[in-house]
Amino acid sequence: MRIARFSAGDEVGFGLIDSDDEGNRFVSRLSGHPLLGQIQLTGERARLEDVRLLSPVLPSKVVCIGKNYADHVAEMRHITGEGTAEPVVFLKPSTSVAGPDDPVFYPALSSRVDFEGELAVVIGRVCREVPVERAKDVVFGYTVGNDVTARDLQQTDKQWTRAKGFDSFCPLGPWIETGLSLEEAADLRVTTTVDGEVRQDGSTAQMIRGIPEVIAYVSSFMTLLPGDVILTGTPAGVGPVEVGQSMTVSIERIGDLTNRVVTRD
């Protein structure tokens, strides 16, 4: 299933994405919260273009895994150093989360902002100290993420909170795909384009540490809550975007996430 969070008029809710034989896409409204209890179809249905898609979840925290693709480690060695024996973990605040087609604000404090397309894992239950072999039990589904980064601040600060934490620096969407197994999620093409030009073209098969290992590691020291998001790292090809440009992160079998870079009024 593809579960979206959307607004229509003054109402915000969740819905299932489907399509007809002619390729028209629809969202069928659900009652309840898919991560917190029983849901059912309400019978209300709308064309996808008539609603506004929102970030599919509002996580209490976004946990990010750095240096999880060898080619990305190599391209960023001058800023972030060599790879490490254990995963590099950092957090993005909940206030950094944005949705599909939401603007990404270029901060006045930075002179270089980069895109980083990533597979995002959505946690489905309260969990801690999850063994690798039980990781599948805590995954609700997958969505697309963009770990937007003020690269110059990352380099000067020597730690990544400010560079990664600006408002709008964590677009997520367009929906949650719940129909992928761990094995399927471990071999998905990840691409990022800027104004239609391909900048990143990789695969989750290139991850140094797979999804089960990442979940086990993070949950070994942190309780994960329903709706929390883990960004699993980015392949090589990250680079800058300028005001006015559009970034699209695409992950096969999940969807496309597009955001335009703007300045605040």
Describe the structure.
With 265 residues, the protein is mainly beta. It has two domains: 2-53, FAH (SH3 type barrels), CATH 2.30.30; 62-262, Fumarylacetoacetate hydrolase, domain 2, CATH 3.90.850. The chain contains six helices and 20 strands. The chain has helices at 70-75, 77-80, 151-157, 161-164, 182-185, 211-219, and strands spanning 2-8, 11-19, 25-31, 40-47, 52-53, 62-66, 88-92, 97-98, 104-105, 113-115, 117-123, 139-146, 149-150, 170-177, 189-194, 197-203, 229-231, 239-241, 246-251, 255-262. The strands form three sheets. Strands 1, 2, 3, 4, 5, 6, 7, 8, 11, 12, 14 and 17 form a twelve-stranded mixed β-sheet that branches. A hairpin with a 2-residue loop joins strand 1 and strand 2 (11-19). The longest helix has 9 residues, at 211-219. It starts with a strand and ends with a strand. The model has no long low-confidence stretch (mean pLDDT 95). Residues 1-56 form the Rv2993c-like N-terminal domain. Keywords: Metal-binding. InterPro entries: Fumarylacetoacetase-like_C, Fumarylacetoacetase_C_sf, Rv2993c-like_N. This is 2-keto-4-pentenoate hydratase/2-oxohepta-3-ene-1,7-dioic acid hydratase in catechol pathway. It comes from Actinorugispora endophytica.
